[in-house]
Protein backbone atom coordinates (compact mmCIF):
# COMPACT_ATOMS: atom_id res chain seq x y z
CA UNK A 1 0.00 0.00 0.00
CA UNK A 2 2.84 2.43 0.71
CA UNK A 3 4.20 2.41 -2.88
CA UNK A 4 0.71 3.18 -4.19
CA UNK A 5 0.41 6.29 -2.02
CA UNK A 6 3.83 7.48 -3.16
CA UNK A 7 2.83 7.15 -6.81
CA UNK A 8 -0.32 9.13 -6.21
CA UNK A 9 1.61 11.88 -4.51
CA UNK A 10 4.01 12.14 -7.46
CA UNK A 11 1.06 12.24 -9.83
CA UNK A 12 -0.59 15.09 -7.88
CA UNK A 13 2.60 17.09 -7.84
CA UNK A 14 3.03 16.66 -11.59
CA UNK A 15 -0.57 17.74 -12.18
CA UNK A 16 -0.12 20.85 -10.03
CA UNK A 17 3.03 21.70 -11.97
CA UNK A 18 1.18 21.37 -15.26
CA UNK A 19 -1.69 23.47 -14.01
CA UNK A 20 0.69 26.19 -12.78
CA UNK A 21 2.53 26.19 -16.09
CA UNK A 22 -0.74 26.60 -18.02
CA UNK A 23 -1.82 29.41 -15.73
CA UNK A 24 1.47 31.22 -16.31
CA UNK A 25 1.01 30.84 -20.05
CA UNK A 26 -2.49 32.22 -19.78
CA UNK A 27 -1.25 35.19 -17.75
CA UNK A 28 1.45 35.84 -20.33
CA UNK A 29 -1.10 35.61 -23.11
CA UNK A 30 -3.36 38.07 -21.34
CA UNK A 31 -0.51 40.47 -20.62
CA UNK A 32 0.86 40.40 -24.17
CA UNK A 33 -2.16 42.11 -25.83
CA UNK A 34 -2.05 44.80 -23.14
CA UNK A 35 1.61 45.46 -23.87
CA UNK A 36 0.99 45.52 -27.60
CA UNK A 37 -2.04 47.70 -27.14
CA UNK A 38 -0.04 50.19 -25.07
CA UNK A 39 2.74 50.22 -27.67
CA UNK A 40 0.29 50.72 -30.50
CA UNK A 41 -1.38 53.53 -28.55
CA UNK A 42 1.92 55.32 -28.14
CA UNK A 43 2.74 54.90 -31.81
CA UNK A 44 -0.78 56.03 -32.83
CA UNK A 45 -0.62 59.07 -30.55
CA UNK A 46 2.73 60.18 -31.96
CA UNK A 47 1.43 59.86 -35.52
CA UNK A 48 -1.70 61.89 -34.67
CA UNK A 49 0.44 64.69 -33.19
CA UNK A 50 2.52 64.81 -36.32
CA UNK A 51 -0.61 64.92 -38.45
CA UNK A 52 -2.04 67.80 -36.43
CA UNK A 53 1.23 69.74 -36.73
CA UNK A 54 1.33 69.20 -40.51
CA UNK A 55 -2.28 70.35 -40.88
CA UNK A 56 -1.53 73.40 -38.73
CA UNK A 57 1.53 74.35 -40.81
CA UNK A 58 -0.41 73.92 -44.07
CA UNK A 59 -3.29 76.02 -42.71
CA UNK A 60 -0.95 78.83 -41.68
CA UNK A 61 0.76 78.75 -45.07
CA UNK A 62 -2.56 78.94 -46.90
CA UNK A 63 -3.71 81.78 -44.63
CA UNK A 64 -0.49 83.71 -45.29
CA UNK A 65 -0.81 83.27 -49.05
CA UNK A 66 -4.46 84.37 -48.99
CA UNK A 67 -3.62 87.40 -46.84
CA UNK A 68 -0.89 88.49 -49.25
CA UNK A 69 -3.17 87.85 -52.23
CA UNK A 70 -6.06 89.86 -50.85
CA UNK A 71 -3.63 92.54 -49.69
CA UNK A 72 -2.28 92.96 -53.22
CA UNK A 73 -5.79 92.74 -54.65
CA UNK A 74 -7.05 95.35 -52.18
CA UNK A 75 -4.12 97.63 -52.92
CA UNK A 76 -5.03 97.61 -56.63
CA UNK A 77 -8.62 98.71 -56.09
CA UNK A 78 -9.59 102.31 -56.80
CA UNK A 79 -10.69 103.10 -53.28
CA UNK A 80 -7.44 101.82 -51.75
CA UNK A 81 -5.23 103.79 -54.14
CA UNK A 82 -7.26 106.96 -53.82
CA UNK A 83 -7.15 106.66 -50.04
CA UNK A 84 -3.36 106.36 -50.14
CA UNK A 85 -3.17 109.75 -51.87
CA UNK A 86 -5.58 111.24 -49.33
CA UNK A 87 -3.49 109.82 -46.49
CA UNK A 88 -0.31 111.32 -47.96
CA UNK A 89 -2.00 114.71 -48.22
CA UNK A 90 -3.32 114.50 -44.66
CA UNK A 91 0.09 113.45 -43.39
CA UNK A 92 1.74 116.44 -45.06
CA UNK A 93 -0.79 118.91 -43.65
CA UNK A 94 -0.74 117.46 -40.11
CA UNK A 95 3.05 117.16 -39.88
CA UNK A 96 3.55 120.71 -41.14
CA UNK A 97 0.96 122.14 -38.73
CA UNK A 98 2.65 120.48 -35.74
CA UNK A 99 6.17 121.60 -36.61
CA UNK A 100 8.21 124.23 -38.43
CA UNK A 101 8.98 121.85 -41.28
CA UNK A 102 7.56 122.07 -44.78
CA UNK A 103 6.19 119.19 -46.82
CA UNK A 104 5.29 118.71 -50.45
CA UNK A 105 3.08 116.26 -52.34
CA UNK A 106 4.15 115.94 -55.98
CA UNK A 107 1.71 114.37 -58.44
CA UNK A 108 3.29 113.24 -61.68
CA UNK A 109 0.57 112.94 -64.29
CA UNK A 110 2.91 111.57 -66.96
CA UNK A 111 4.24 108.80 -64.70
CA UNK A 112 0.89 108.36 -62.92
CA UNK A 113 2.60 108.48 -59.55
CA UNK A 114 2.87 110.64 -56.44
CA UNK A 115 5.35 111.20 -53.66
CA UNK A 116 5.39 112.89 -50.30
CA UNK A 117 8.61 114.52 -49.17
CA UNK A 118 9.91 116.78 -46.46
CA UNK A 119 11.47 119.94 -47.90
CA UNK A 120 14.97 120.35 -46.46
CA UNK A 121 16.70 122.59 -49.03
CA UNK A 122 15.92 125.97 -50.62
CA UNK A 123 16.08 124.34 -54.04
CA UNK A 124 12.49 123.16 -54.42
CA UNK A 125 13.05 121.76 -57.90
CA UNK A 126 15.41 119.04 -56.70
CA UNK A 127 14.08 116.12 -54.65
CA UNK A 128 16.64 114.38 -52.46
CA UNK A 129 16.36 110.66 -51.85
CA UNK A 130 16.44 111.10 -48.09
CA UNK A 131 13.53 113.55 -48.25
CA UNK A 132 11.05 111.03 -49.69
CA UNK A 133 8.53 109.68 -47.18
CA UNK A 134 5.99 108.07 -49.53
CA UNK A 135 6.42 107.16 -53.19
CA UNK A 136 3.71 105.20 -54.97
CA UNK A 137 2.23 104.55 -58.42
CA UNK A 138 -1.34 104.45 -59.63
CA UNK A 139 -2.70 101.59 -61.74
CA UNK A 140 -5.29 101.23 -64.49
CA UNK A 141 -7.96 101.06 -61.77
CA UNK A 142 -7.07 104.56 -60.57
CA UNK A 143 -5.68 107.24 -62.89
CA UNK A 144 -5.10 110.95 -62.47
CA UNK A 145 -7.10 112.92 -65.06
CA UNK A 146 -6.08 116.45 -64.11
CA UNK A 147 -5.24 118.73 -61.21
CA UNK A 148 -6.85 122.10 -60.53
CA UNK A 149 -5.69 124.70 -58.01
CA UNK A 150 -7.91 127.17 -56.20
CA UNK A 151 -6.16 130.09 -57.91
CA UNK A 152 -7.65 128.98 -61.25
CA UNK A 153 -4.57 127.22 -62.59
CA UNK A 154 -4.84 123.58 -63.72
CA UNK A 155 -2.86 120.92 -65.59
CA UNK A 156 -3.38 117.49 -67.14
CA UNK A 157 0.29 116.84 -67.81
CA UNK A 158 3.63 117.24 -66.14
CA UNK A 159 3.80 117.66 -62.38
CA UNK A 160 1.43 119.29 -59.89
CA UNK A 161 2.73 120.26 -56.43
CA UNK A 162 0.90 120.93 -53.18
CA UNK A 163 3.08 122.45 -50.45
CA UNK A 164 2.17 122.63 -46.76
CA UNK A 165 3.81 124.68 -44.03
CA UNK A 166 3.05 125.57 -40.44
CA UNK A 167 0.47 128.16 -41.53
CA UNK A 168 -1.31 125.73 -43.89
CA UNK A 169 -1.41 124.85 -47.59
CA UNK A 170 0.21 127.23 -50.04
CA UNK A 171 -2.58 126.41 -52.50
CA UNK A 172 -5.73 124.40 -52.24
CA UNK A 173 -7.24 122.48 -55.12
CA UNK A 174 -8.47 119.12 -56.30
CA UNK A 175 -7.01 116.03 -57.90
CA UNK A 176 -9.49 114.36 -60.24
CA UNK A 177 -9.10 110.57 -60.39
CA UNK A 178 -10.79 108.14 -62.78
CA UNK A 179 -11.81 104.67 -61.63
CA UNK A 180 -11.93 101.48 -63.72
CA UNK A 181 -15.28 102.61 -65.20
CA UNK A 182 -13.86 106.05 -66.10
CA UNK A 183 -16.02 107.65 -63.41
CA UNK A 184 -14.46 110.77 -61.81
CA UNK A 185 -13.68 111.21 -58.13
CA UNK A 186 -12.11 114.26 -56.51
CA UNK A 187 -9.47 114.50 -53.82
CA UNK A 188 -10.20 117.97 -52.47
CA UNK A 189 -7.56 119.96 -50.57
CA UNK A 190 -9.22 122.79 -48.68
CA UNK A 191 -6.74 125.60 -48.09
CA UNK A 192 -8.84 127.31 -45.40
CA UNK A 193 -9.77 124.32 -43.23
CA UNK A 194 -6.75 122.18 -44.18
CA UNK A 195 -9.13 119.25 -44.59
CA UNK A 196 -8.46 116.69 -47.36
CA UNK A 197 -11.43 114.61 -48.52
CA UNK A 198 -12.31 112.09 -51.22
CA UNK A 199 -15.61 112.86 -52.93
CA UNK A 200 -17.51 111.25 -55.79
CA UNK A 201 -17.69 113.09 -59.09
CA UNK A 202 -15.78 116.03 -60.48
CA UNK A 203 -16.81 118.43 -57.74
CA UNK A 204 -16.86 122.19 -58.07
CA UNK A 205 -13.84 123.70 -56.41
CA UNK A 206 -14.41 126.43 -53.85
CA UNK A 207 -12.12 129.29 -54.84
CA UNK A 208 -11.15 131.72 -52.05
CA UNK A 209 -12.38 135.23 -52.70
CA UNK A 210 -10.00 138.09 -53.25
CA UNK A 211 -9.73 140.66 -50.51
CA UNK A 212 -11.60 143.29 -52.58
CA UNK A 213 -14.49 140.84 -52.99
CA UNK A 214 -15.08 140.33 -49.29
CA UNK A 215 -17.59 142.85 -47.84
CA UNK A 216 -16.81 144.50 -44.49
Secondary structure elements and pairings:
Elements: H1 2-75, H2 78-97, E1 102-108, E2 113-119, E3 132-137, E4 143-149, E5 154-155, E6 159-165, E7 168-169, E8 173-178, E9 184-189, E10 196-200
Give structural notes:
Mean pLDDT is 79; it is low at 1-11 and 29-44. Helices cover 44% and strands 25% of the residues. With 216 residues, it is α+β, with helices and mostly antiparallel strands. The protein is elongated. The chain has a domain at 78-211: 3-Layer(bab) Sandwich (minor pseudopilin epsh fold), CATH 3.55.40.10. It has helices at 2-75, 78-97; strands spanning 102-108, 113-119, 132-137, 143-149, 154-155, 159-165, 168-169, 173-178, 184-189, 196-200. It has two helices and ten strands. The strands form two sheets. A five-stranded antiparallel sheet has the order 3-2-1-6-7, covered by helices on one side. A five-stranded antiparallel sheet has the order 5-4-8-9-10, with helices on one face. The chain starts with a helix and ends in a 16-residue tail after the last strand.
